[in-house]
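Q: what does this look like with S-adenosylmethionine bound?
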Amino acid sequence: MKGGRTIKKTKKSISREVGLEVGSICGKYFLKLEHLHYGYWTDDIKVDIANLHLAQDEYVKFIVSHIPDGVKTILDVGCGTGQVARKLFDMGYKVECVSPSPFLKERAGELLGNSSRIFECFYEDLQTANRYDMVLFCESFQYIDMQQALSNTDKFLNRGGYLLICDIFRGDIKGKDVMSGGHRLTKFYDLIKKFPFRLIENIDITEATAPNLDLFNDVLENVVRPVVNAGLRFFESRHRIALKFLKWKYRRKTDKLYKKYFEGENTSKNFKKYKSYQLFLYKKEVQR
Ligand SMILES: C[S@@+](CC[C@H](N)C(=O)[O-])C[C@H]1O[C@@H](n2cnc3c(N)ncnc32)[C@H](O)[C@@H]1O
């Protein structure tokens, strides 16, 4: 169902969506992963790519354990493959979802059937008369304009309803951040003050989520980079001049991509230095 006015696709949003789609296809096919979020690594789960699905299940348990009593209806913003929404539905919550990606919406739709309505739009564009007891951003807040995300949440929440965000933020480190992604935490604090939300709970889960980065880095180093290099060698053997030209023409873009993905900077150490993974639970107060 289309729930928004417009679906404004920019180059950036398209590349993010494509990245998430590729992640979901490869994750499902090679590792039987059903979720699109990080894993929450507890002491008893060995950090190994083969255990990522277990850590992802722990992440969902962690989220669910922070849903306050009395919540009955939930809007799952950026529902990905629909797994979290499905779990919530099975637990007895009435869930509706937002997904701007037709591919992910279809996948979530297969899992949710008629149990949950999925609005196919960016959250910034969502229009509905429905109101919810909780709006959930499960690793989706970072992709959404903060001002819009908070003002829409204020609008869509019932009085006394809850906002739950579990996501990556950027720390307040001076200088260039070597890893992309996440809203700046200080900006978030400044902005949320302007809304009628009272903080109920804030838990820093950076330590428990950081190991994902080492796994990601390992895949880039040992799978993606050798495959890309082999592909380039093959192409060069057939089209040496064309490859030389393309390398020259797109040198800035490729340099940037190599720097971002193949210079070994996506590590848990850097994640802990530059990012912070936070759970925030806010309660909507009576209008001031
Ligand atoms: C990392 S995935 C997380 C998916 C899911 N919540 C989970 O925990 O597995 C990010 C999700 O945010 C969605 N998303 C990205 N930009 C969005 C926007 N502007 N409005 C709503 N959802 C958005 C993506 O389509 C994707 O489903």
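The two ends are 34 Å apart (CA to CA). Residues 1-5 have pLDDT under 50 and may be disordered.
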